[in-house]
Amino acid sequence: MRFGNLGTPRSASRRHFLRVSGGLGIGLIVNIGFLEAAYGQSPAVKTVDPTGFVKIAPDSTVTVLSKHLEMGQGPYTGLATLVAEELDADWAQIRAEGAPANDALYKNFAFGAQGTGGSTSIANSYEQMRKAGATARAMLVSAAAQQWQVPSEEITVAKGVVRHAKSSRQASFGELAEAAAAQPAPGDVKLKDPRDFVLIGKNLQRLDASSKSTGHATFTIDVHRPDALTVLVAHPPRFGAKAVSFDDAAARRVRGVVDVRSIPQGVAVYAKGFWAAQKARDALRVQWDEAGTERRGTQELIAAFRAGIGQPDGIATNKGDTGRALATAAKVVEAEYIFPYLAHSPLETLDCAIEIKNGACEAWYGCQFPGIDHPVIAGVLGLPKEKVKINVLYAGGSFGRRAQIFGELAAEAAQALKALGRDASIKLVWTREDDIRGGSYRPLVLHRLRGGLDKAGNITALEDAVAAQSFLKGTPLEAMLVDGRDPLVTEGASDLPYAIPNLRVVERVMQVGVPVLSWRSVGHTHTAYATETFIDELLASGGKDPVAGRLALLKGEPRYAGVLRAAAKLADWKGAKVGAGRARGVAVHKAFDTYVAQIAEVSRGSDGMPKVEKVWCAVDCGVAVNPDNVKSQMEGAIGFGLSAILFDEITLEAGQVMQSNFHDYRMLRINEMPHVEVTVVSSKEKPTGVGEPGVPPIGPAVANAWRALTGQSVRHLPFSRVLST
Amino acid sequence: MTAFSVNGRKVEVDVDPDTPLLWVLRDELQLIGTKYGCGVAQCGACTVHLNGLPRRACVTPVSSIEGGEIVTIEGLEGKEADAVKSAWVGLNVPQCGYCQSGQIMSAVSLLTEIPSPSDADIDHAMTGNVCRCATYVRIRAAIQRAAADLKKG
To answer: Which architecture characterizes domain A10-198 according to CATH?
Structure first.
C-alpha cells in the first residue's frame, strides 16, 4: 500500500513534501477551460477552485475530485469532508470522484507524482483540500458580492447557502457557480480555527456506502465499452520466463475467441467475454524459455537467508555498545523468526479497460499510481501523454497489490492493446490464479534477535538482524534508499521506542528472482511481530507484566504510552492470564506516524489453532477527520492481519508457486473474526493515516496471548504450519 | 438456447452450455452488480438467488438453470432487502465494496429464513462470503440491526 516514506523526516520525499506544500496557492493556478475539457464534463458544471478539486453543478451538487484512489480506506469521504468544511457546504450536496491522471494538479507531495499509498491520503492533503474548499468559498462569495454590489466581508456562507443579511439576499452554490468560476483566484485564504469545525471530527456517512450496498458502484471489471474484447494473458509458470512459441489451434476453436497474440508478458487471448477467453487460454500450448529464472524453493531460500543474515550489509540503528552489553548480560535470549511470502489478494483481481481510437488512448481502472502508469501507457503505445487519458475508478481492494512500481498492469494492458495493431477496446482481466501466482508478494523475511537482561531482569541490550528482499534497490524508487540502505526492511525495529540502552538493528538485502512489493503496512508487517513478541518474552523472563513492563520503558514516549494505557483501560487489563481457557496478549506499534495498541483475548479452538475471541484497540492518529472511519479501518486491519498470521503463506518449489486460489490461500472468514472494540484517542496533532497502522499489532498481540495460554512461542508464520507439524 | 428469468424478466441466451451463470449475467445481460472473485465458489462475491435460495453463480453452468428464477442484487426487493440495504448504509459497512453485493444476497437469504438470527446463525450463513477488507464486525451488526428493524415493522 505504501510507496513513499512520508513521516520519516530524513527522507528525500519528506523534504519534497515540505517544499511543494510551501508553494501551494501560487503554483497551481491553471486554465479552467483546460480542466473542463480534460474532465469531459458538461459545460454547465463549473470547476470553481483554480487548483482543480471542486466542481459545482447548476443543481448545487458539489463534486470533490480525489487525487487519492478509493480502494476502501475512505479517502473520498475524508477528503470531501475537508473541502466541505471550508466551503461551508451542506454534507448532503457533496459527492466525490477520482481525479484523472495529471501530475501537475494531483501529485502526492510525498511521492512527487500522482499516487496513493503509505497511508498518506489525509496526512498529505489535510491543508491542500481545506485550501481548495476555502478558495472555492472565497470565489463564490466574491461572485455574490459582485452581483449584489455589496462588500464581500458582509457575506456569510452556511450549509451551502450564500447570504447577505442586510439586503436579505441569498443564493445557492449552483446559482453562483458560473460567475464564481470567472472570479480571479484569491491569493491566500484563511483556514478555519479547528474550534469552528462543523464537519471535521463528525461521523459522516461514507459517500460510497449507498452505491456499494446496491451493486451500483462501478469497478474496473464493470466497465462496458462497445465491442470491447475481454483479454486473458497466459503468464509464465516461473517468474521472468518468456514465451518462445505457442500453438493456438485449439484455443482459436473456442466459440467467441477473436485473436491470440504474443506480448512481452506472455500470450494474450482476445474473446467476446470472460468465459471464452478463459477456455481458450486453458487450451493454449506455450513453450517457455526459463533460462535464468529463479529455481529455488522456499526451503533453499530460507537456508540462503540464514547464511546471509550473519553478514549484514547495512546498519540501521546502532545505539550504545550492543555487542559488549550482550557479552556481559546476566541472561541472553535468542530467537529466529521466519515470515513467508504473502499475496495481497484483493477481492477484485487486477484488471484494466483500455482503448485506442484515432490516435488517442483512454483507460478506465482502479489506478493506484497514475504518475507511473501514465507515461508507461504512453510509452508502450508511442503516444504523447496528452493523448492518453486515465480515468480512475473504485478499486476492489489493493493492500499494495495495485501499487506497482513499474506500472506492470498498465504495461500489460497497453501491450495487449498494441498487439492488435488497430483501433480497439479491450478489458484485461486477471483470474484469481493469475493473482495468487503473479508475484509482487510481501517479501520473505528472516529476523534473528538477541536480547540481554541484567540480574534484576531489566532489558539492557537488543539486537535485531533482518534479511529480506528489497523493492527499492534497482527500481524507480531507489531515491528512497538511505545511505544505500533500504529503510523499509527495518522500519518499526530501527525506531524501537523502548528505553533500552543498547540497540543495534542491521539488515541484509537478499537477491531472489521473485517479484516483491509493499503489502499493507510494509516493513511493519514483520518488524512489529518480531520485536513485540520478543520484548514480551524478555519482559516475561524478567518477571514483568506485559503492560506495566512496556510502560516503564516508554516514559519518554507519551503517544505510545497513551494508546497502550487507553487499550489497557478499554480491556480492563489485569494481566495476561484470565482463566477459563483464555489468555491475553498486548502489542503497541507506530506505523506511518499513527500509534496503535491492541489487546487480544485468545482461546484454543477445536482445531488446535488460536481462536481470537476479542480485540481491544486504541489508536492515536492526531485529529480524527472521521472517527467512525478510523474505527472501521482498525476493525478491518485486525481481520486482515489475522488472516495473514493464522493461515497465509506463498511457498515455492523449484521456483514455482504452490498456491493458486482461496482453497489453498485462505482468507479469514466471518466465523473467525473476533469481536472488536476501538477507542480513538483524542488529539490535536496533525492528522496521520489509518489505512495500514491497524495491521502490525494484531499478530504479536495474538502470539503473546497464545504464549501466555500455551507456553508456545510461534516464530515461524503462519500459525497453521506450526500447529500442523 | 437456455431460457430462464432474471429479476422477473424472461431471457433466452445462446451461449455454450457450460458457461457459468456469472458470465452470462455480466457479459451477456450487463448485470454487473454480481462480481467475480475466485471462479471456484470460495469467496461468494458472485452470490445470486436461484428459486429463492443463494447460489454461487461462478460455478453454476447456465444449462443447469433452465426455467429457473434468478434474482441478482439489481433486482433484490422486499422488506428484508430494504432492511438489509438500509442497515448496510447506516453502519457504513462497505470499505472497498467489491464483495458487498454477495454479502447482501446472503444476508437477505438468512433473514428470510431466520428473522431473528443469533451471532452463530450469522456466522454459519455468511461463512461462504469472504470480505478481504474484513468488514465482518459491521456485517454482523448490520444483520442484527436489519433483524431488529424488521421486527419493529
So the answer is: 2-Layer Sandwich (3.30)
Contacts of A31 (CB under 8 A, 6+ apart): none
Note which residues in 57-76 of chain B have CB less than 8 A from chain A: 72-74
φ/ψ region of B106 (left if φ > 0, alpha if ψ in -120 to 50, else beta) reads alpha
CATH class of A220-291+350-429: alpha beta
CA distances from residue A310 to A28, A302, A339, A447, A507 in whole angstroms, order as listed: 50, 13, 17, 11, 9
DSSP A113: B
**pLDDT digit string, tens, across residues A227-280:** 999 999 999 999 999 999 999 999 999 999 999 999 999 999 999 999 999 999
CATH architecture classification, A298-342+440-723: 2-Layer Sandwich (3.30)
B85–A213 CB contact, under 8 Å: yes
Looking up cell 471464452 gives: A276
Smallest CA–CA distance, residue B152 to chain A, in Å, is 22
pTM of the model: 0.94
Kindly report the backbone phi and psi dihedral angles of residue A151, in degrees, each rounded to the nearest multiple of 5, phi listed first.
Answer: -65, 135
Cβ separation of B73 and A214 shorter than 8 Å?
yes
The yes/no answer to whether this complex scores an ipTM above 0.95 is: yes
Asked whether the beta carbons of A371 and A377 are under 8 A apart, the reply is: no
Helix A75-87 to helix A121-148 angle, to the nearest 10 degrees? 30
Residue A211: helix, strand or coil by DSSP?
A: helix
Residue A342 DSSP code: B
Q: Counting one residue from A and one from B, how many pairs have CB atoms under 8 Å apart?
A: 178
Dihedral angle sign, alpha carbons of residues A154, A159, A160, A161: negative
The tens digit of pLDDT for each residue in A530-548 reads: 999 999 999 999 999 999 9
The boundaries of every CATH 3.30.365.10 domain in chain A are 10-198, 220-291+350-429, 298-342+440-723
Nearest to A432 among B38, B72, B85 (CB): B38
Name chain B contacts of A218, Cβ cutoff 8 Å.
Answer: 32
Q: How distant is the Cα of B113 from the closest Cα of chain A, in angstroms?
A: 19
